[in-house]
Amino acid sequence: MSRRSGKYRRMLSRFFKERQIYHRSDGVVHFISMSTKTQVALAFVVGAALMWIAYASVNVVFKEQIIVAKERDFRVMETTLSKRLVDAQKAYDDVNVLNHIIEQEFDSTMDDISARHQMLRNMVERKATIDQDIDTLANGLAAAGGPNGQQPTNGNRVMIDITPGEPTPRQSRISILRKEAAAEVLKRKSSSNFSGDGPAADAIQTMEIAAAELFLEQTLLIASIEEKATQQIEALEMVLESTGVTSESLVTPAKISNIALAQGGPFIDLANIDGSSARFFKHANRALEAVDELAAIQAAVDYVPLSSPLTVSRRFTSGFGIRRDPINGRHSSHHGIDFAAAWASPVTATAAGLVKFAGTRSGFGRVVEIDHGNGFITRYAHMNRISVKAGQKVNLHDKVGELGSSGRSTGPHVHYEIHFKGRPVNPRRFIEAGRYVFES
Ligand SMILES: [Zn+2]
User: Fold this and answer.
1) Domain end residue (candidates: 272, 302, 332)
2) Mean pLDDT of all residues in the chain?
3) In the chain, how long is the greatest CA-to-CA distance?
4) Which of 292, 223, 218, 282 lies closest to 255 in space, CA to CA?
5) 162: pLDDT confidence band, cut at 50, 70 and 90?
6) C-alpha of residue 283 to centroid of ligand 1, in Å
7) Span from the CA of 309 to the centroid of ligand 1 (angstroms)
8) Is the predicted pLDDT of residue 139 greater than 70, yes or no?
9) Does 88 reside within a domain?
10) First-to-final CA distance of the chain
11) Mean pLDDT calculated for residue range 209-234
């Protein structure tokens, strides 16, 4: 036994000395002896009971406070949770808003691009049709050649491609347009419409830059269409002017607006689109106007007699104006020009039109007259045979008859006249003008 446990034992024996409890009942005294061991056990039991009572009392007394405290803890937890939930919802909403912004940005950019694309496609298609028509005319005129059948000097048929020395107001506008487009791209590259950082802003900026580059290409395409159309208009105007007939007297404003109405591109309401798009469509509308004007002047030129009535080998024998009459020798006015060629050579229409007269006229012999519209009438006289009937539609170089010597004629030739608004004009100027269409 250690010294320490001996000390406890001694302490316990001092506290819980062996005690006797006396108890008297009916005059008899009893006693209960309580050993140290019993007292310790009893003290332990009593102590435990007291502790339990204390604990239970505290629990009963502070129950409310404990519940309140627990509830408070719970509320704090709940608040924290719901705050987190709100934050998460907000983040989710932000992402949604961002997505929506990106979607809207994307949609409006796509709408913008496809509207421009649609307009450009229409314009390019129309321009291609007009070019093909001009090409057909130029090819036809080249096949007939000049007044004496001259072919294009360089052997290659060259489309009208006259570059004026001085830039026209239209062309300086085109260089302005180019500068504007380049500036627009720079502007879009440096500043995005969408302000913000992160992948969304980056995505939008990348898209905007791509759109801006596409915008530049579309604008340059517009510019080149307007430029080319303008050059062609100028060239065709030159062709018409060299005939002595002004284009204004042929291509009436009413006609241009009719064609514009019938074939013009989509009408764009400029009020509903932003600055750069509005500028684009303003330029595009101007290019469309140029294409419309080209279409109108091309359509008019198609019906101007710019070719020779003979496409075969021929000789120019007599000019327009005052000359000595080949039969009576007197000075008189010659209202046409004469070509000599082999007997029965095909005489052909010098432009598309409607046969107005096919028969015999005094002095002219067997004659065909074609109405080309716009005030132009052509006459082919002294023919051996007539191949068309009045009211028949003819195209450029359709055969109208065979060369002969009918009427007041000294030998096989074709007498050819052009009347513009009732007055005879010099056909040679028209045939020379036709060469501008196929020669540069
Ligand atoms: Zn004649």
Assistant:
1) 302
2) 81
3) 197
4) 292
5) very low
6) 51
7) 13
8) yes
9) no
10) 136
11) 84
Which residue has better confidence, 440 or 379? Answer: 379
109 shares its domain with 256: yes
Radius of gyration of the chain (CA): 54
Distance CA 277, CA 113 (A): 10
Alpha-carbon dihedral angle through residues 129, 132, 133, 137, given to the nearest 10 degrees: 170
Overall number of domains in the chain:
3
pLDDT digits (tens, 9 = 90+) for 53-112: 988 888 888 888 888 888 899 999 999 999 999 999 988 888 888 788 878 878 887 887
Dist. CA 334 → ligand 1 center (Å): 6
The confidence band for 386, taking pLDDT boundaries of 50, 70 and 90, is: very high
- Name the residue range of residue 47's domain: 3-82
In the structure, ligand 1 is a single-atom ion and the residues with CB under 5 Å from it are: 338, 415
With respect to residue 358, please indicate whether it lies within any of the assigned structural domains.
Answer: yes
Verify that 332 and 256 share a domain, yes or no. Answer: no
Residue 168 banded pLDDT, cuts 50, 70, 90: low
CA of 381 from ligand 1 middle (Å) equals 8
Does the residue 99 lie in any domain?
A: no
pLDDT at 210 over 60: yes
Q: Look at 150 and 131; give whichever has higher pLDDT.
A: 131
- Assess whether 110 and 70 both reside in one domain: no
Do 260 and 167 share a structural domain?
yes
Q: Which residues of 213-228 are buried (b: 16+ CB within 10 A; e: fewer)?
A: ebbbebbbbbbebbbb
Report residue 153 CA to chain centroid gap: 41
321, 298: one domain: no
**55 Cα to the center of ligand 1, angstroms:** 142
Q: Is residue 265 located within the same domain as residue 336?
A: no
Say if 307 falls within a structural domain.
Answer: no
Q: Indicate if the pLDDT at residue 435 is higher than 50.
A: yes
Report CA(340)–ligand 1 centroid distance (Å): 10
